[in-house]
Structure formats: structure tokens, C-alpha cells
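User: C-alpha cells for this one?
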Amino acid sequence: MSLEVPKSGLTKRVILVLLYGALLIAPIDMFLYLYVGASYLTVPLFGMIAAPALFITLITFTEIARYYGKPLTKQEIFLIYNLLGASVSAIYFVGFIYQGYFRICPIAKEIYDPFSGKSLYDLLPSWYSPPESSFMARTFLNPGWFSVIAVGLGFFVCYMLFEIGLGLLLSYVYVEVEELPFPTANVDANTILVLSERELVRTRVFSLSAIIGIIWSIITFGTPSVVGGSLGIRTGPLTFVDLTPWINRYIQGPVFGVTFEIFPYTFGWIWLDPSPVISMFIASYAVWFFGNIFALRIPLDVFKDFQQEYRPGMTIDLLMWRSWLWIWASFLLGAGLGVALVAIIRSRRYLVSSFRALAKIKGRSAVGYPPLWIILSAWIGGGIGAVILIQTILPNFPIWASIVFTLLLPFINASVNARGRG
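Assistant:
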């Protein structure tokens, strides 16, 4: 029995939507990022777009196509859903402006490195921040920016190759061979089906959910922004309340906040088995609430730096960052490696069988995977390219550390995360 070959979704209409994202959404978000200091339409990471911008764009173009009597197909909506983030990823390059700012910022000349005794300004390498003279030209088309942009683009390309190759490999292992259910994928799949097929029950649920979300957003975003300023209470959206400074008046150490966004409260219902959600809840409180309390009270050298830096009144961001830096980063890294090794050992037969199956693929396979040599070339090539870049710009950096943190740990981390999601 032959498998039905799926239709291609790469059409002129899809390209038009992607151009809309690149030419309209990305510039608007760049302006917000530079003017307000926050990115509201995209996530400042490669290929990520915020949910509001994604769904507004999807609904707008699916309705336009349906109005003209040529609805978008599932394949077209799938590509828009997954590639719109890539089309707005130009916001990544705004980071070059921030890197250059360190060169002309007066504060950079007042911050000194305790090891070398030099200021941050003197320690900035040319491949990270261009010379001051380059800012007089008011353009990126200046020789001083060449090394900065070249290094940034180099890491960008290596990252994309590494992510795509490793993603294809783990997708085949956990989806095709091990056949894990991946419950969160149903959310994305049902969204695409609702927008393409318009099945009555699903469409009603989707519409009702959208209405609830709009009403809740008006309450949490619109009302505080409009009414709060006039009443002298607060301005801006009411999306998160940081209770950490208040709790730390009575108990030192715990991190606690309340979000008013709907998604975190509904996401856990995706899992039919509640054990993952319960485990995450217990682990979160064990680390950030009770763990911080014990770390401030137990007189051990391992907690000394955190105890010296702690101050009552710290915000949730500051307290989480400092406790992560001094305590939890090494602990969770070790725990993660232990979990990863157990997961890899348990999945070793699936890994072996996946490599064997991928090695037999000639050309395009029935499930759409490229041959094994292409997957491995993208994955290993991207990783080795990143290692070469690191060693080129930092020749004294230990090469073993580059290999471990560029090739080994990302593979372990991706394997654990993929299996956890599955």
C-alpha cells in the first residue's frame, strides 16, 4: 500500500505572508524594542514570534483567502504557522546596536575587571563592539562593523544548521521510531485544522476561546493602562505581580509572583497524565521557594556568596538571577546531566535503530526525512563551525570546553527536552 504524497504548501500566497512578516511585523517590533525596551511581537531569539502576532496574522490571511473563495490549505497554514517566526527574526540583528553602545557608553569606562584591573571599555574586543569612530558614519556600511556582523552572522548560520540537523535527528528517533505521543503538538495541529477545515464544533471552541482571551486582555492590558494612570494607581499592562519583595519582609529568600496571563494556567491541562505538571510544581517550589530559604539559613561555604549578596527587597528577577548564579546553576546542570544520561541509556536501542533506518534512506523518504548524511552534516557541521569560530576569536579558550558546551551538552539537553515533551 503506497503512502499518499502530501501536497506542497510552499505557494505564492505563503511567500506573500512571510514577506508581510519580514517587511511589516519585524520593523514595527524593532521600533518597539528600541523605543520601549521590550519586544512585544516577537521573541528575541532565532525564529520565534509571539503568539498574538502569530494568530492575528494567521486569522487575517485565512479570512482574506476564504473571502475571495480560495481558502488556504492545511499545508499552507502549516508553513505560515512554522515559518512566520523565521521571517521576523531580523530583530536578532538589533543586538549589534546594543553591542556597539558599550563602546560609547560612559559607564563602560567606569566598570573595572577585578582580575586584569582594566575597564570594560578597554577589554571590549573589536569583533564584539566596533571602534568609536564607526558611529560617526551613522551606518552599518562601515569597515568597523565588518568583524562584528561577520561573527554574528557566522554564529547565526552555525546555530541554524545545528538546530535543524539535531531537530530532524531527534524527530525521527522520538516520533517515527519510539512513537512518543507529544501531547502539546495537538494544540498546534488543532489550530491548523480549525483554520483550514472550519469544522463546526472546533470552530466554536476556537471562537469562544478567542473571545475569552480578548475580554481578559482588555481587563489586564487595556484597563490598567487607561484607568490606572488617571487614578494614580499604575500605568501599563497588569500581566504580572511580583510578590517577592513583600514576602521577603517576613521570610528571607523565597521567590514568588502571580501572572495574569491565561496561557500558563491552561497549558498544564494538555497532559492527560497530571504527574508531569505535579512534578514541575513540586520542583519549582523546592528550588525557588524553600531552597532559597534554606540556602540563606544554612551556614555552609557553598552558600556564602549568595548570603553575602542577598538584600531584602530584591525583585523576582534579581533574586532568581543571583540565586541561580551562586547556587542552582551548577546543581541543576549536574541533575540535568544525570537525567540525560539515564534517558539516553534507556533510549539507546531507539537511537541505534534510528541511525540504521536513517542510513537506509535514499533521496527523499516516505516520511519526508532527508538522508542521514545530510542530517549529520547539518548537525555536526554547525557544531564544528561554532567551535572553530570560538577558537578563532578566543584562541586561549580551552578547546575541550568549546566541544563540550557546543556539541555534547546541547545534544544531551535537546534529547532530554524532546523526550520530556514527548
